[in-house]
Amino acid sequence: MPGCFKKMLFSLASLVSFVSFILIVVAMGTPKWMTGKILCKTGADLVNATDPELVKFIGEIYYGLFRGGKTRQCGLGGRRSKFTIFPHMVKKLNTGLHVMIIIFLCVAIFFSLVSFGFCILNTIKVPYRAINGPAGACLWNFLAGGFVVLAVTSFMAAVKLHHVTERIANFQENVFRFVILEERSEDCFWICVASATAHAVNLLLIAISGIHFPKIKTKTEEVNVTAEDIMY
């Protein structure tokens, strides 16, 4: 029974690792890591717009690691446009930090797949316990979840400290200047949190699998051997 229970736990852990891998891939392809509202300050200053009129100068912006879009409102109606971060826009951002975020997520994808494979190995009881035992599976899950946390933390640092949203909003804007009124973390943030949480759940499952449960032994009946049994 304990062996079957451990197999079930490692099977569940391998499924969680694969789900985490899918979540990270989806997060990298999601164009809405951050959304916000942008004010066309140049247009508002030209007409000396008051509070009720500022609505005509407030647009929207969203972006992810590779692409995004914005709606410019400069008093003449909204103009929608889409953009890509690479290869030109990234030069206006903190290039090293942005590339580091992508690298962190790629490493997290790698360790998620490694965790997935090693959990399967533990399920089918392949040898080399020193490599693919519970301690090894814990290590891979810890590394995968840690790199996801590093990626999310680095992205939020870039947004807050390096004003990434404002730089993107004003990219190739020669006439108008935009200021950020509001910023919100969107789908990607919660997807990455879910991925890191999945690895935390895996650590819990692997810890439970290390508990040694008492084996159930069936009581054998004692056989009385007599002299007559020996003779015959």
Automatic annotation (TrEMBL):
The membrane topology noted for this protein in its Swiss-Prot or TrEMBL record is:
Multi-pass membrane protein
Q: Give the Pfam families listed for this entry.
A: Clarin-2 (PF25807)
Q: Which UniProt keywords apply?
A: Membrane, Transmembrane, Transmembrane helix
Quick check: keyword Membrane in the entry?
yes
Q: Name one GO biological process term.
A: sensory perception of sound
**Similarity remark:** Belongs to the clarin family.
Q: Can you name this protein?
A: CLRN2 protein
Give the lineage.
Eukaryota, Metazoa, Chordata, Craniata, Vertebrata
Q: Which gene encodes it?
A: Clrn2
